[in-house]
Design the sequence.
């Protein structure tokens, strides 16, 4: 069966701004000001932790661990306060359900993923979910998608990836998978030259997927 491999943050759920907010809050406590542009460059393009700014400032390892723990606590609170589901996502998944296989391949921690989807109603549409605990290196490395291919015996020519970020596209490309980019608020100015196609809205995904499925 043809399979769609979905990214999570910025594609299914609107969590990236909440993550930025939590990161900015904890860095403010050590007098490090982080801008949205810095967050986009470090996190969404390079796939690095914005807490590296604290490392560069010479803040001790123990304090950085405290900052990370507090950032994760704040982020969990933010994503648990209200639904994060992006408009049009459920309708898109409904239109593809039963016609293609679908799985989630995310760089999120398992607990954060589960919090974001506690009330989303989306998980019933997916055959599997891989989180950061399921592979050795996160995006932009190919490991997340290679794990999906290997664990679920998927063939590259019968898969397509749905991503929103530059680091996600890099991960898919490194795994030699075709990737469709759905623009999000934080990633719209990324370099997506390696994408098979850049879509302005998630509602465009079903037509692109079903065209590819019919040819596979």
Sequence:
């Amino acid at each position: 069966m043809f399979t769609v491999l979905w990214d999570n943050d910025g594609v299914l759920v609107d969590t990236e701004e909440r993550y930025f907010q939590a990161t900015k809050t904890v860095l403010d406590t050590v007098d490090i000001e982080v801008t949205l542009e810095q967050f986009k460059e470090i996190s969404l393009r390079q796939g690095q932790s914005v807490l590296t700014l604290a490392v560069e400032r010479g803040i001790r390892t123990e304090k950085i661990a405290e900052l990370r723990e507090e950032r994760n606590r704040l982020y969990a609170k933010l994503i648990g306060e209200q639904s994060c589901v992006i408009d049009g996502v459920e309708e898109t998944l409904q239109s593809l359900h039963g016609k293609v296989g679908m799985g989630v391949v995310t760089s999120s921690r398992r607990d954060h993923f589960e919090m974001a989807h506690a009330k989303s109603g989306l998980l019933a549409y997916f055959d599997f979910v891989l989180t950061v605990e399921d592979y050795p290196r996160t995006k932009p490395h190919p490991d997340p998608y290679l794990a999906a291919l290997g664990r679920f015996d998927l063939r590259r020519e019968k898969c397509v990836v749905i991503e929103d970020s530059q680091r996600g596209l890099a991960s898919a490309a490194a795994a030699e998978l075709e990737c469709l980019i759905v623009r999000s608020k934080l990633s719209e100015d990324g370099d997506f030259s390696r994408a098979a196609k850049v879509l302005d809205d998630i509602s465009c995904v079903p037509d692109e997927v079903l065209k590819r499925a019919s040819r596979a």
Summary: The first strand starts at residue 3 and ends at 6. Residues 52 and 197 are 32 Å apart (CA to CA). The longest helix spans residues 61-81. The mean pLDDT is 95.
